[in-house]
Design a protein that fits this description.
Pfam family, one: DSBA
Order of helices and strands: EHEHHHHHHEEH
CATH class: Alpha Beta
CATH architecture: 3-Layer(aba) Sandwich
Number of domains: 1
Helix content: 40-55%
Number of strands: 4
Structural class: alpha+beta
Radius of gyration: 16 Å
InterPro entries: DSBA-like_thioredoxin_dom, Thioredoxin-like_sf
Distance between the termini: 10 Å
Strand content: 5-15%
Protein name: DsbA family protein
Number of helices: 8
Length: 200
C-alpha cells in the first residue's frame, strides 16, 4: 500500500463521499490527509442541486448503480435547498483536527448531509455533530462564531487551487501522481493504488 495520500474534497460533493466509502472498503486503508476545496465559496450564490435535472440525471447514471452495488446509502442529491456553503464545516473540522477528532467529525459531516439530509452550513447542526464526536459544544460554537479557523480554511483552499492545481473534486494525490474525479468502483481505486506503490 502506498504511503500517505492527500485527498482534496468538499463535503457537498457526492463523488467525494463515494470515494470515502470506497476507501473504507479497502483491505488495507491508506493513511490520508484531507485538504478542503469549496465548490461554492461565499459570496458566490449558492446553487439548488435538488431541483437541477441535469445533476439528478448524472448522479442517477453514475453514482446510483455504484451505490446500489456497494450498499452505500446516499441521497442523490440531498433535499437541502440551496446547497450549503461548506466554509463553516471546514472550520469545524479544523477545530476537531486540533483536538484529535478530525476524522470522526469529517465522516459525521458527510453523513449528515448525504444520509440525513441536514444543512451542514448551519452552526447548530455542526455543533451537534461536534458534540457527537466528543468535542466541547460551547467552545466549538464559539470558534465558529468568532471565525477562529476562517483564515486557516481560506489558506488551505488557496493551497488546493493554486499550489496543488486542483480543478475538480475529489482529487487524490500521491507524490506526483493524481487521480481526479469519479472513481467508479473498488477495483479501479485498488488498481491506481497498486500502480502508485509499484512506481514508488
Amino acid at each position: 500500500m502506498p504511503g500517505k495520500l492527500t485527498i482534496v474534497s468538499d463535503f457537498v460533493c457526492p463523488y467525494c463521499y463515494w470515494l470515502e466509502a470506497l476507501l473504507d472498503r479497502l483491505e488495507e486503508p491508506p493513511e490520508v490527509t484531507h485538504v478542503p476545496f469549496q465548490l461554492t465559496e461565499p459570496p458566490e450564490p449558492r446553487v439548488d442541486v435538488w431541483n437541477d435535472p441535469v445533476r439528478r440525471a448524472r448522479y442517477a447514471e453514475t453514482l446510483g448503480p455504484a451505490c446500489q452495488a456497494q450498499g452505500v446509502e446516499m441521497h442523490l442529491p440531498p433535499r437541502v435547498i440551496p446547497r450549503p456553503y461548506t466554509d463553516l464545516a471546514f472550520q469545524g473540522w479544523c477545530f476537531a483536527e486540533e483536538r484529535g477528532r478530525g476524522e470522526p467529525f469529517y465522516r459525521a459531516v458527510f453523513r449528515a448531509y448525504f444520509v440525513e439530509e441536514r444543512d451542514i452550513g448551519d452552526p447548530a447542526v455542526l455543533t451537534e455533530l461536534a458534540e457527537g464526536c466528543g468535542l466541547p459544544g460551547e467552545n466549538f460554537r464559539t470558534a465558529l462564531e468568532t471565525g477562529a479557523y476562517a483564515e486557516t480554511v481560506r489558506r488551505e483552499s488557496r493551497l488546493s487551487r493554486e499550489a496543488l492545481g486542483i480543478r475538480m473534486v475529489p482529487t487524490i494525490l500521491a507524490g506526483d501522481k493524481r487521480l481526479e474525479g469519479f472513481v467508479p468502483d473498488l477495483d479501479a481505486l485498488q488498481a491506481w493504488l497498486d500502480e502508485v506503490r509499484r512506481e514508488a
